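As a warm-up, study this chain.
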Amino acid sequence: MNITIKDRELEVKEGQTVLQAARENGIYIPSLCYHDRTGPAGKCRVCVVEVEGMAGLHTSCSLEVSEGMKVITDSEKVLEAQKLVVNLLLSTGKHDCLSCEQNGICELQDVAYYLGIETPAFHMADVKPEIDDSSEFVYLDHSKCILCGRCIAGCNGTVVNEVLDFGYRGHEAKVICDNDVPMGHSSCVQCGECVQLCPTGAIIDKLRRGKGRPWETHKVQTTCGYCGVGCQIDLHIKDNEVIDITGKEGVGPNFGSLCVKGRYGYHFLNDPARLKTPLIRTNGSFREASWDEALDLVAKNLNRIKQESGPDAIGVFSSARITNEENYLMQKFARATIGTNNVDHCARL
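Now compare it with the structure written out below.
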């Protein structure tokens, strides 16, 4: 299927939305309420476009492509509508970019920059900060919320914890936990899905606050070590210290989602007491050794025990914090190399 977006002829897939087709081909259409994992929303109206032969403006996140469609993303009519929406959002919140943790990775900031908005066009009553600091890992600042609904869609539809929802009406509307109780007293499991989906600084990682600006860090992709699922994560590193972990978007098996341990259980990485080299007991005390020396000692002792007492004198205990492939190799090592069926796993206990 062929369409035209911003005077570029593109080959797209049937069933795609205009926004998906544009992003796949490197064309920027601003949006705030849409996310790949939560799907079309059509709430914020920031992603509106014009389509030749169709009256009015259309939300590109919900408009499906059709053969020969010609999409205009930067007409005066489109830009004016987008500026109006963004100006209203900026005017109804407390968006202090200089002190915000999301400065540099805020989608609202990106859209304002794209539209050339330096200060809000409307001046409304001062918004009082409404902070929820009650939970262990998540920090909520309702004055920065734009009511896009992405956190709610992720909580209810992606991880299905069903904690978040919209509460109240009109200017009083806000995102609430359960029956409007503080997050720390709610049924929230602190998975951080809402943090990763939030396009502004309204919901952020509490543990990262004040640890470093986004441009001061670099990301390293790796595999979460807490279980055998193999979730892909990004380590955010500053000065050789992990200050944050996020799920790797668009990559399986987790596609950005993480559990509470995978997202927030990383402080042992920086702990000065963490073991970094093997230890061998000599004369009642431990000394550091190389991996080759330690493995040679283990192999020697296993062979000695096998020869003296038989293979069933040895038991192998595996871990849920390694991959399924590594667990398979462990049981194969026990059965094929040592010759015992004494194999167990911590997840079974």
